[in-house]
Amino acid sequence: MLMGLSSQKTLFSVLATIFFCVAVAECGNVYKIGVGIADITGPAAEINMMGYAQLGQRTAGIHLRQFSRAFVVDDGKSRILFISIDAGMTSQVIYLEVVKALKEKYGSLYSEKNVCISSTHTHSGPGGFLQHFKECRDGAWKHTALATFFGMKAISTTPASTEVPLPTSIIQQRRELTMQLMWIRRCSF
Fold first, then answer.
1. Which of 3, 57, 149, 186 could pair with 101 as two cysteines, CB 3.0-4.6 Å apart?
2. Where are the alpha helices (DSSP H) in the chain?
3. If phi over 0 gives left and psi between -120 and 50 gives alpha, with beta otherwise, what is residue 128?
4. Which residues bind Zn(2+) (predicted)?
């Protein structure tokens, strides 16, 4: 029997997490991990969504907020920064602007060699912000794209555990997170 796409993604996430934890445990190094998050939700209404060909179709409110999540891994010798944005895609212009802002704030700690920006590929977010943005286009402002950088404000690294969690603890953590998110959504309206 074939698994659904959601089940495949969940299985891949769990396996990738377990693989990462085992790899870290085998290395014997002490890793420092940092995380940050920023709200990058664009305008609430009357904008084109990313990737839709029907230009007359406009948004009419916010169903879920969009975020930029930043993850730092530091082994004492080198550091990497992975940023995931809830957007249809990202571009080199956005990447270069974020790296420039990071260099201005953190000096040589972050550069093109250790920063990666990825997107979740949603078609429900704002469009019109990819290349050479200087002004509002289809409702997406430059600061919306650069909010990926603002997620860095809260990042500080702490020693990470190299213990591989049992699958039941992963499931429990996911349940707790889901309950917290459901509570946040109920309270945010």
1. 149
2. 5-27, 92-106, 142-150, 167-187
3. left
4. 121
